[in-house]
Structure formats: C-alpha cells, structure tokens
Amino acid sequence: MTAPPKKRGRPRTLDRNVGLDVAARLFWEHGYEGTSIADLTAAMGVTPPSLYATFGSKEELYRQALDRATERESKARMDALLSDMSAYEALSFYLHDVATGISRPDDPRGCIVSTAVVQCAAENETVAKSVTARREAAIKAIRERFDRAVVEGELAAGTDTDSLARFYGAFVQGMSVQACDGACTERLRRLVDIALSAWPGSRGDRSR
Fold first, then answer.
1. What pTM did the predictor assign?
2. Where are the alpha helices (DSSP H) in 56-124?
3. 29 near 8, Cβ under 8 Å?
C-alpha cells in the first residue's frame, strides 16, 4: 500500500526584529555590496520571497537594519550630547564610547555608519547617499552641542563650530578604519585622549 504524500509544512515566517539584527551584523561585517540576498536568506533561514515580502528590497532592508543598529549603538552618545554635562565631558563620553563600540571582540570591527559605503558601484548611489546623510546627522548633533557651548561660554564667541564638529567627525571615521585594521580598545582610547587635547574651550566639570 502506497503511503500518502507528506504535507508540506508552512513556510517559515520571518520575525522582523530578528531579521534586522541578523542583517545589521552581516552588513556591518561585509558591507552593503559584499552582502548578497543569498547571504541574508541563509543567515535568517528564510526564502527570498519571505525576505522581500517583509522588507521590500535589499536596499530597504539595509536602511531599516541601519536604523535599528545605530539607534542601539548611538543612543547613549546622543543622550550625552543633550545632557547637562559640559561640552567637553559630553564629547569625551561620545568619543570614548565610540572607541569601545567599534572594537568589541565579539562584534564586527569598525563603525557600521562611519566607514560604510564610502565607495560603491553607480547602481548603489542612493544607498551611499543615505549613509552620507547619517554621517552628516551625527556631525550636526555634535555641532549643535558646540553651538550651545558657545552660548554658555564653554567655547569662545566666534568659534567655527561646524569645522570643529567635522574635525571630530573625521577623527571618528579614522578610528573606525584603525579598528578595522585591528586596533584594540585601549589603543583607540589613547587616540581619543590625544584628540581631546585639541579641544579649544573650557573643560569644566558641571557635576562638581
């Protein structure tokens, strides 16, 4: 007697947040162009149709994964910039937190945004522009804290806060490259201390 055919199981559904975490790690480790749909579906354990049904496209998945990862990675830094810390203390916290975050031994090296999609194929230009906008947003947040420092007397009137913010933004990008090349947390923190020596304003501690 012939056995009845086995019923197919229902296709595995994709948990959005789990999928975003998996995607963020792959994009962080291999970059946008270095991560294929096959890589993503294999890591998530789903089929391409399931991935597209959930996220629409690889580009949209990348954007959402970056949103989730950067919110988690940068929340404490953004909170520091908005806090009652002195500008110098907030900047010190920000840079040291970056140094720690980009060199954790269990995570991919470097910053998922600072050095992401710096160069890309023409067809991925919209992705590159999206990441550039994120880097600009980080610099804007730092500049706004420096603008506040001018008003509050921690920086001299007439300080070029945009250039100062871009200086520290460039430093963060440089640290990301160093981390990708294997620099440890302690080495990066020493670099942060040198970068902080360029701070042109008051270093007052408001907690005292």
1. 0.87
2. 58-82, 87-101
3. no
